[in-house]
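Second attempt. The first submission of Thioredoxin domain protein had a stray character pasted in from the spreadsheet, which I only caught after the job came back as garbage. Lesson logged: always re-copy from the clean sequence file. Corrected sequence (121 aa) follows.
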Amino acid sequence: MLLYPNKDKLSKNKKDCYLIICFCADWCSTCRKYRKELSILSDKFKLHMFYWIDIEDNYEFIGNEDIINFPTLLVQISKKTVFYGNISSNIDHLNMIIKTINNNKDIKTKLPNIWEMLEAS
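This time the job returned cleanly.
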């Protein structure tokens, strides 16, 4: 199920859960198409939490980060960023990332603590 900030609270203590966030904009036709495919993919990975964040409606979630290409994806495991960047709009690319993620990474970004923001929303 595709979730939205300020509507769907992040489930706490969900073991082995990936937080997968897609930063996009509703005015972007590529984003609108990607949202449909992301929703379908989220139904295949029910253990993980998929959020759709429109950067214009929810700008507080990007802080000082400059998102210039869509879709831009963030994947966190236990509040640790293991993937961050823009990717191809082919949903198979994200599917591959989820299946092969290296959870030993800890990528630094300028993003605020999104995990805590979603827990509080």
